[in-house]
């Protein structure tokens, strides 16, 4: 082959009863890129609004030219082109890029182009696909074409508008790129919405009644079936009346078997959430590690929407590869010998890749610390999914005290099963005293307790991923990139608590567009685009009509934003100038290497973004403070 990573293989094969010589090679993602041409590629030569209808060019990217040459080289003198790209929209689009490159250099007719359809890289699936070659579907590719064009045009228009408009009036923004993207901004919108909910939250007092019963050296804590009351006087009357009873009666004792279901096979979004929650890694870091493990041959392809295994995959064989592990080998051996259960089925199938699973055994010595943690999580999850559900026995008692009802639940775990190998979930036992129906009991404690409603928490990365996935913001392969982008752009920061908080700049951008009455930060905008992509893929609308409808809607939004640019500038200025007192963390001594002068710099709590903005008025920061106080070196001669 012409490239190091895309060798060409030749071998004899039989297709539909005919002996052929098969020549096979590979690609690495998209080969071509869509972009503006001159003068529209130059920020300073045309206003942003011209990009709505500026001509576009799709060309082979510089880093893929050798790969394209490799395609041309290995498709010389072929009689038939079979495309084995991923069986999803993105794969179909890459397939059409391959077709274009090949047909530009050969006389291969469309009738001699075929498409292989498969959902797992198993011998059975591959052989079946080879014997039942179909045809590429242009509508799936065009859905991706439409998304690429809309993302390019709209991202460029609003990014240029924001960046040029703000930096002309707010010098302290320096050389920052004030970007906008149809996935990036709704991601920021979720962070800002939750932050404002907390900021505007008004706590309310409420009251509960709680009973404790001590018996046989055990304590049962009964909860009020009314849950809570927000009226103090009403709750006090009920409490006083109940106090007159002095004793309670157990009305019901219900016992039943309970199961804690084992996890379903691991798709990418669930993987990102799990790693974020349990390992405290960012989704971006998680995906990079997973890619490394895949490239080293330890796990399956980590970008998948599928959460159930096809019956063509030999899962017992995959489990058997883990029996020699020092950490979970004995458990894997028990599965192989007797306890193997076919995993539960999820509801999603991308028709391309199986769920994430280990494909060979790894040891701690073969991987670095973080790689091992991710590999261990993936492997334990896979083994747990092939196990039996955990079993338990639940006892629920209902107590009448006065005329009020209270209940208490106890749990005894009888079979750990998958929990033996899966430390990421707990099923805690709660032992309560033995009660009989109609038994009289005398509470050891009966209290009326005052509480206060609590605001929601800031979004964790797992929360944010869930919201994005539900709203269709990004894909399993890109969600982590959008989360990283809002941090790279200094629109949001991740606190030590692993929760997201908007920076004053990010908050200002969203608030400004809200004041204008636009939906630039709302998920509905992207959802409408995605619905259009679906219509193209389903052949209910053509590509051009979807693109033009969307651009017409967004042009109307742009006109509103353009006429209200003063609102954007004023809001950003105000937020950057009026930093809340609670944001201040400490004061740092800064040192200018040129003139040996020192100054005091206010460092903002968990906010390197604004720290950088403040520093920009003094000089270029060589190192950013992570703890205060600390000496910084400034390179400007001031």
Approximate helicity band = 25-40%
End-to-end separation: 56 Å
**What is the number of strand segments?**
18
Question: Which consecutive residue ranges, at least 5 long each, have pLDDT under 50?
Answer: 581-638
User: How many H/I helices?
Assistant: 18
Side by side, the strands of the main sheet go 12-9-10-11-8-7-13
Ordered list of secondary-structure elements with their pairings:
Layout: E1 9-15, E2 18-24, E3 32-36, E4 56-60, H1 65-74, E5 81-83, H2 89-103, E6 113-115, H3 123-131, H4 138-169, H5 184-199, E7 205-215, E8 218-224, H6 232-243, E9 248-260, H7 268-278, H8 283-295, H9 315-320, H10 329-339, H11 369-385, E10 390-401, E11 404-415, E12 440-441, E13 445-452, H12 461-471, H13 479-488, E14 492-494, E15 500-502, H14 504-516, H15 523-537, H16 543-563, H17 565-577, E16 584-592, E17 598-604, H18 608-615, E18 632-634
Parallel strand pairs: 5-6, 16-18
Antiparallel strand pairs: 1-2, 3-4, 7-8, 7-13, 8-11, 9-10, 9-12, 10-11, 14-15, 16-17
Helix pairs in contact: 2-4, 4-15, 4-16, 5-13, 7-8, 7-12, 8-11, 14-17, 15-16
